[in-house]
Amino acid sequence: MKELPGGVYVSPQILPQQINELAKHGVVTIINNRPDMEVPEQPLSVAIQAAAAGLEINYTFIPMARPLTSELIEAAVKAYKNLPRPIFAYCASGTRSTILWCFAHAEELGVDAVLDGAAKEGYDLEQYRGALEEYIASRT
After folding, report:
1. Cβ within 8 Å of residue 3, ≥6 positions away
2. Which end of the chain is more exposed for a tag (fewer CB within 10 A), N or C?
3. Mode of pairing for the β-strands spanning 2-4 and 8-11
4. Distance from first CA to last CA of the chain, Å, rounded?
């Protein structure tokens, strides 16, 4: 589990039985960015959602497949704006979750800050700089 600024954690795929450990760490929201059935043995979103509900943890499913769309970005912005923190987001490796976190926080923190926050946790997303800058420009 890697920590991004603003009470957000990202990681690769989790299993339903690991949600209890997240609750012990104070996580109150889970965002699943991994589409169902990317790989055969991957837990389905409904299994993660059920485990989260059993612990009264908020759950949101925002599956990110390529290409990155404005609908995905807006869903992430809405989720990060409205859901309580700490938030735990996951996908196959944590990269897609971190990309969406960058877009959801770029306007508030700035492009340099989100890219630096991602890089400090091992996610080099410099290739998204232009898209992040365009995104912010489109919001003003």
Report:
1. 9, 121
2. C
3. antiparallel
4. 34
Range of the domain at 97: 2-139
Could you report the per-residue pLDDT of 53-69, keeping only the tens digit for each?
999 999 999 999 878 99
Q: Which residue has the tokens 């410099």?
A: 126
Task: Report the distance separating Cα 80 and Cα 64, nearest Å.
Answer: 15
Distance in angstroms (rounded) separating the CA atoms of residues 61 and 32: 5
- Report the domain count for the chain: 1
| Residue-wise pLDDT tens digits, 35-52 | 999 998 899 999 999 999
CATH number of the CATH domain containing 49: 3.90.190.10
